Amino acid sequence: MAERPLDVIHKSLDKEVLVILKRGAEFRGRLIGYDIHLNVVLADAQLIEDGEPKKNYGKIVIRGDNVLAISPVEIE
């Protein structure tokens, strides 16, 4: 059976994710919460520009209607 989108997000709880926003901004952080509207809460969040951390935010909430994609991050 195919995985549902929220199942994939649930498996990423307490792990590093990359959140890409509709306007092109990218945030990386540890996913500590989400809801059915794709509102997400990240801990240790960083704004990413050109693949490099630009600014640290700590804990943030990203409103779901701004989210284009959420991707698990492979830790090297």
Blueprint (SSEs and pairs):
Elements: H1 5-11, E1 16-21, E2 26-34, E3 40-49, E4 52-62, E5 67-72
Antiparallel strand pairs: 1-2, 1-5, 2-3, 3-4
Keywords: Ribonucleoprotein
Family: Belongs to the snRNP Sm proteins family.
GO molecular function: RNA binding
Commentary on this structure:
It holds the Pfam family LSM. It comes from Thermococcus litoralis. One of its GO terms (biological process) is mRNA splicing, via spliceosome. This protein is mainly β and 76 residues long. The chain has a single domain (5-72), classed as SH3 type barrels. Helix content is 9%, strand content 55%. The chain contains one helix and five strands, in the order αβββββ. A hairpin with a 5-residue loop joins β2 and β3 (40-49).
The overall pLDDT average reads 92
CATH third-level topology: SH3 type barrels
Q: How large is the radius of gyration?
A: 12 Å
Profile the largest sheet.
Answer: 5 strands, antiparallel
Family: Belongs to the snRNP Sm proteins family.
Domain Sm: 4-76
InterPro entries: Lsm6/sSmF (IPR016487), LSM_dom_sf (IPR010920), Sm (IPR047575), Sm_dom_euk/arc (IPR001163), snRNP_Sm-like_arc (IPR022901)
GO molecular function: RNA binding
In short:
9% of the residues lie in helices and 55% in strands. It has 76 residues and is mainly β.
Feature tags:
Sm; 9% helix; RNA binding; ribonucleoprotein; 5-stranded antiparallel beta sheet; 1 helix; mainly beta; SH3 type barrels; 76 residues; Lsm6/sSmF
